Amino acid sequence: MFRFFICFVAGIGAGLGTGFAGMSAAAVISPMLITFLGFPAYEAVGIALASDVLASAVSAYTYGKNKNLDIRNGLVMMAAVLAFTLIGSFVASLVPNTTMGSFSVFMTLLLGIKFIARPVMTTKEAMDKVSGRRRIIQSAASGSIVGFICGFIGAGGGMMMLLLLTSVLGYELKTAVGTSVFIMAFTAFTGAASHFAIGGIPDLWCLFFCVGSTLLWARIAAKFANKASAITLNRATGVVLVILGTAILTVKYCA
Hints:
Blueprint: H1 2-21, H2 26-37, H3 41-65, H4 71-94, H5 103-117, H6 124-128, H7 132-153, H8 157-167, H9 173-199, H10 204-227, H11 230-254
């Protein structure tokens, strides 16, 4: 019963983070499985990435259905993310004792505060004024930055993508989240497959409940997000990120 409760609660946090802000489930599920259930870190990350796959896919479908998804530039950014993740991982292997394990947690908290204090109010009309060529270049450059940092420190992908999509590429928030979860579905699948291939099949019971809970709450969050106004979505996203960031920090350092 305790295992079910932890997996379900972890899925709630991960699903809300994914559906509202394109946040990786690994930022929520991994620390909870490690802290409360004693999972090895590698297995916990594998379960979290597997939970990300369907949650991100169903969120991307919901955003795409509501015309809040940029597939063309999303594919360009995804290719750059995957390529530079490999480069970042290689560089990290050459630099001993380099770790920034709390990077994504602090980014989650700060980004939440940013959405509350300075909401993203860009419109689709403003987005359409940017030339296609410039957008592709921006997508490739941003994907390269996200991929390298993810590969180098092993965290921060979802949050960094959202930050760059809204701040650098000038996306309105719904399209930014929709594009982010579209990319995350593929990157999470790649990560989960490699984890299971190397580390073997994880605890199927926990895998099932984490995937199910994350999928359910991501679907609920994505449906709400696509119906909400821009200011409401900014505030809801900010509150969710602040709560999740605070909760993860508490789990990591106080449990």
